[in-house]
Design goal:
With about 100 residues, the protein is an all-beta fold. It has no helices and 8 strands. A 4-stranded antiparallel beta sheet has the order 3-4-5-6, with no helix packed on it. Strands 1-2 form a two-stranded antiparallel sheet. Strands 7-8 form a two-stranded antiparallel sheet. The N and C termini lie far apart (about 30 Å).
Length: about 100
């Protein structure tokens, strides 16, 4: 629910600009999500296996990806952290903090 500017709802589309109802995030149907954090323009989840997925606006590298996309409309695995088991994530305005 809420604004989908820059794909921050994670539903795979920028066409829907605002939603008053919840939507299923199909990209997260496989992994068991144990924690989620939402920033001003992006979101992140941690899975039971310690992986992190991010989506939304990638300003200043906030998505943690090895490239700087304008935005990601679906959750993307943060491959740079594949050797680290994460337990917490916190999204700010233009940053993401991970705890391992």
């Amino acid at each position: 629910m809420g604004s989908n500017s820059h794909g921050k709802l994670g539903i795979g589309s920028k066409h829907l600009t605002h939603s008053k109802t919840p939507h299923l995030i199909e990209a997260l149907l496989g992994p068991l999500v144990t924690q989620i954090s939402c920033g001003d323009h992006h979101s992140a989840v941690i899975t039971s296996s310690g992986e992190c997925y991010t989506w939304g606006r990638g300003t200043d590298g906030a998505l943690g990806l090895n490239y700087k996309p304008d935005s990601e409309t679906s959750p993307v695995l943060v491959k740079e952290l594949h050797h680290t088991i994460l337990i917490r994530v916190s999204c700010g305005s233009r940053h993401t903090l991970y705890l391992s």
